[in-house]
User: Fold this.
Amino acid sequence: MHFQTLLVHGHEKPDKTYNAVIPPIYLTTTYRSEKFGKRERFGYSRGNNPTRAYLEGLIAELEGAKHGFAFSSGMTAIAASLAVLKSGDQVLVTKNVYGGTVALLDGFFKDFGLSYELIDMSDLNQLERAFNEKTKAVLIESPSNPLLDITDIEAVSRAAKKRGIITIVDNTFLSPYLQRPLELGADIVVESATKFFSGHSDVIAGTAATNDDGLAGKIGAYQRLAGGIAQPFDIYLLVRGLKTLSVRIDRQVENAGKIVEFLQNNPGIDKIYYPGLAEHPGYAINQRQSKSPGSMVSFLLNPAYNIAVFFDSLRYITPGASLGSVETLIQHPATGSHATFSPEQRKQAGITDNLIRLSAGIENLNDLIEDLEQALKKSIGKNSD
Ligand SMILES: *Cc1c(COP(=O)(O)O)cnc(C)c1O
Assistant:
């Protein structure tokens, strides 16, 4: 079965009782025990729930994994994946990773003795030099957030595996429709399902998947013991959103490509970060490891333009956090997604104050271009300093 068909039909019959084409929402916390002392597959819903089991099976299939997990947020999926590590271990992290991931390592895991280092994963030599006896995991985002750096997932996974180090990939920016990290050698793939999986800005959720039974045991234990599980109503929305994942992304990528063309020819834009451009340093690697450059575009606004006026002048393009949704979203990493980075961390990650990140939606392209054009015009020369 091809990926698009799997999205629509699912990996198994969604309802074995009545043949409903949509998986039922099982709103139950507990299950009647049929026989004294017998342990059933479903006993208590933190441990397992039929609605969640359906989604987790589907996630496993979509990621090309043996085991899938559904969490209440992308951050919980990342926390559960990092929780396979121990006190004293170190994780090497892509330098411009999602801001929340660094905040989680700093604000939580550090106190439990897990250390980390931010490094430029597009430079394999830098990675090799950073490996030490404490390193037990590598955490990659490719394309990264917000500069869309590309990491060679296969090469990093291979280098890590040689030393017994696991590779975790946050695949949120592309989703398994465009990139399947486990097939490239990664050990765990996580997604913020809040983004492309849901696609409609109406549910916070996360997923993880792995082929490794040992890692799956630990991630499953996190769910059973700490919770942080995806809830049945949210799962209903996710299963519904996933059906259109491929058509949404096809349209989003098409719009992103055309927006990039427009930005390339506009004097207000100093630089564009998009892995679909031949001059992007990761162009060839991205082409090899994924189906497309995706629908995320970052760019630098010329200092002669006022960034606040630009944002406040947009009519359809929505200023706000998040990405991967049907509406085109735009945000300012320095005050938004990466506000939790220290100024030093921002500088190291190359996140300047004139950097803008755009997530292409599915609207009519002409409306989007027109909107960018009029907002850029209004913001020329409005700088007071
Ligand atoms: C949004 C996001 C997360 C966090 O996911 P939540 O669902 O908001 O908890 C993690 N990684 C990336 C790349 C993201 O974009």
Summary: The chain has a mean pLDDT of 95.
